[in-house]
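Hi all, long-time lurker, first post. I run a small reading group and we've been trying to get comfortable going from sequence to structure in the token notation. Rather than ask abstract questions, I figured I'd post a concrete chain and ask someone more experienced to write out its structure so we can walk through it together at our next meeting. Sequence below, copied exactly:
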Amino acid sequence: MEINGVSHDEQIRYDALPISPEVLQALAQKGYEIATPIQGGAIPYLMDWKDVVAKAPTGTGKTFAFGIPILEHIDVDSDAVQALILAPTRELAIQIRDELRDLCTFLHGVRSVCLYGGQPIEKQIKQLKSKPQIVVATPGRLMDHQKRHTVRLDKVETVVLDEADRMLDMGFIDDVTKILDSMPHRRNLGLFSATISREVMDISWVYQRDPVEITVRPVAENRPDIQQYSILLSDRSQKFDTLLGLLQGGGYERAIAFCNTKNMTDRLAARLQQCGISAQPIHGDIPQKNREKTLSTFREGKLRVLVATDVAARGLDIDDVDAVFNYDVPDEHEYYIHRIGRTGRAKKHGVSYTFVGTITEEIKLNEIIRSQKFNVQMLKYDEDGCLMPVEQ
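-- Answer (accepted) --
Happy to help. Here is the structure in token form:
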């Protein structure tokens, strides 16, 4: 980990940080004693109301890094919204809200609400009447509530943008700036992301004051333990049989298969179902209620394969995904990182397979490997139809 360019390698225990006994008890109940590097770096500065720009790989505990200081700062006797967390997707917003509630197991009087599109706004208006001190929201839905005057942010002190690069890349930059401009008493701003884009830096330059820059590089101790494979196929038609063979032969009980389009996601899930494999699609056109049900079923281990577009690549906190399949090579380098980051979490070993059926896909994958310096083992079918390593 680097803080303002200076390397820090020491491990930090949670009980060595300025954390209340109630939150420490919640962490202990989950079996956590040692803070991850991003947590050990960010928590003290956010506790001191410093602005923070934090860059860390997926799955390194960013939610607790900003969530713990927020909880420690909350005045439980106040009915005002004191902290705002913005997330790019509904799934991530819900996950953040759930993790904060876990941290509040022994911390009474803290109320939070999650605001996102795809859910009736009337239900959220009713929840806001409970006077939450923490709001977790997607930018568009929060703007809807501001226009209706159903939420007040004039007392907000801490703001966090989680997956900031993704949020700004999705076109939310105007909404984000309007939201930031509407909070006159903001004391600190945290920008958390796996990559720091130019748009993120623009927000930092305008809205932060001497931010502390924390970088956790994807070195061995922080990079998830993921064995990466690419499979060279003669054409796209081989992809389904290859997936089926790996699912049946590899013994993977919980897997995610990523596709680039909603149509392909639906088709692949249907074909897997026809072969007797429990699978469900998840993408932006599926109603939010159905998506939440599918994710819940998958987390409970009652669904073997989640077939998803990149809407599901971020914000899924599922610690025991056995394998990730890139049925389609992703269009963006960051998508690849976030896709494979769904496995190998919580210090467990994971595996990812990327199917390469065209020259275009081969070029795209080679660019990803080269830019990210990944070690990807190439496989190819031999004359007997067995997958064999390719010498490189």
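A couple of things your group might point at:
The mean pLDDT is 88.
The two ends are 33 Å apart (CA to CA).
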